[in-house]
Amino acid sequence: MRMLKILFAAAAATAFFTTSGATEPVKIRLSWVAPLSTVGSIWLEKKDLARHFGKSYVVETVRYTGTPTMITALANNELEVSDLAYSTLPIAILNAGIDDLVVISDEFQDGVSGYYSNEFLVLADGPIKSVADLKSKVVATNAAGSAVDIASRYMLKKAGLEDKRDYTTVEAPLATMKAMLMEKKADLIPAVLPFALDPELRKVSRILFTGRDAVGITQFSTLNARRSFISKNRAAMVDFMEDTLRIMQWYLDPANKKEMAEIAARITKQPAERFSWAFTTQDYHRDPGLRPNLEALQNNVKVTKELGFVKTELDVKKHVDLTLLEEAAERLK
Question: Which CATH number covers residue 186?
Answer without folding.
Answer: 3.40.190.10
